[in-house]
Amino acid sequence: MDKIRKGDEVVVIAGRDKGKRGTVSLRVDPTHLMVDGVNLVKKHQKPNPMKGVTGGVIEKSMPIDQSNLMLFNPATGKGDRVGFRILEDGTKVRVFKSNGEQVRG
Length: 105
Description:
Blueprint: E1 9-12, E2 21-27, E3 32-35, E4 40-45, E5 56-61, E6 64-65, E7 69-73, E8 78-80, E9 82-86, E10 92-96
Antiparallel strand pairs: 1-2, 1-7, 2-3, 3-6, 4-5, 7-8, 9-10
C-alpha cells in the first residue's frame, strides 16, 4: 500500500518548488509521481503539421521524487507524515501521524 496515491493533495518539501501544493495526477514508477503545477520545465518543440502540433516553447510537468513530497493535512494546513492502521473489520487505512485522522480518498 502506497503512502501517496493518485488524487492526493501534496506539498513539496524540497527542491526549487518547495512550498507549492498540487494534486498527484499519475504514478510514473514506484518512486516518481506527476504533480499538477509542480516541476514545470520549458521544452522547445518542433512543429508537426501531420499531427497538428504547433512549434514553439511549451511548459510541461515532469516527474518528482516521492521523497520530496508530503501529504497535505487539511486539519493542520501543513504537510504531514502518513502511517497505517488496521480497522476492526480488517481493512488497512492510511492515517496522519500528527492527529491520527484517517486520510480521505
